[in-house]
Amino acid sequence: MYSLGRKFFITTDSNFEYQVERIIFDSRIAQKGDLFIPLKGLNYDGEDFCNDAINKGAAVLTTRNINGPAPVQKVKDVYKELLEICKTKLLEIKPKIIFITGSYGKTTIKDMLKNILGPSCHASKENENNEFGIPFTILGMPQACEYLVVECGARKPNDFDLISNYLFCDVFILTSIAENHLTTFGSVENIINTKLKLKNCLKNKSNFVDGRKVKKESILERNKQILKETLGLLSIDMELDNISFKPTIGRGNIIDKHNGQIIDQTYNAHPDTVLATANEENPNETILILGDMAELGDKEHEIHFDLIKKLNKYEIFLTGAIYNGLKDKFENNKVEFFQNEKDFPINYLSKQLKAGKKIYFKGSRSSKMERYLKLLLDD
After folding, report:
1. pTM of the full structure
2. Among 103, 141, 171, 227, which is 20 to 30 Å from 339 by CA?
3. Whether residue 71 is found in the same domain as residue 124
4. What is the pLDDT of residues 315-373, one digit of tens each?
5. Boundary (domain end) residue, out of 51, 75, 99
6. 278, 345, 283, 346: which is closest to 307 by C-alpha?
7. 43 is in which domain, residue-wise?
8. Residues 72-88: pLDDT tens digits?
9. 211: in domain
């Protein structure tokens, strides 16, 4: 059993109460006063390192029969036990809890909410949005936390099954649904069903903000509408029109260079967001640098081709294996392809910046578009 408070306790099968100063997931940093929770990934099993943690004085949770100098709490399922600990912490601190999921837009909404809610808000850190990151976010919550904003990402069906059975929230935001991770989800229907499982976490089922129903032309106005609905459900009355939001690096931040600007959208990409964010710019004043978009399933070539057709008013430079296979099919003479850093048209783009133009970078993480952006920044 577990009790929290400012200290954390476990009670072992031998009824020995052990005071825990911190919870860790890496046995290499274990010391007396720690509770080591061994997680299982695709290529590793944390339980293989329980003895290492025990020998350093840390208590452990494990499904195995292990003896040692430090307390051992044998459990049936380590991950379920971790979620029980998270549930206990949520019940003790009692913050207002917002869960956010969607095919895209999760991090932006999370960052905007954190900015609005201020110092009393604890939110997911960068990349802590999977089945491990969600518990990390909850366990990192300080005692004085009033609002907890949890970004929830899924890459395959059933990722939210246990989370929806153990955890709870006051507001659930679904930002969007799109054909992401089709290679693992199999279908858009599976994506929808997986993400909507988080509705089961709601204390009040009507506190659901469905971004699919928000019809706004610009990404910013769409996000503001989602925020307005969310704040209303939290009983917060705030005017958003005059609030400025500074995008994080790689998610729309603007960098002044020479007489022009670089628009950094390098963190990730989906066809819908490429189209929406690019269309906010003047085609006569903006050059698009686009990399491949990953995990779009069997239709990835068709989706990439259709996107470039829709952006036919822009001057575009493309890179990546998918675009390489399509480069000879584009009839638009404004579309060019580059293979790598050596082919990157840095001299031409620098000249365009000096002429006052904007250079827009976007691509999936696997495209590593930030390397090309850096070349232009360093020029």
Report:
1. 0.83
2. 103
3. no
4. 999 999 999 999 888 887 789 999 999 999 999 999 999 999 999 999 998 999 999 99
5. 75
6. 278
7. 2-75
8. 888 999 999 999 999 99
9. yes
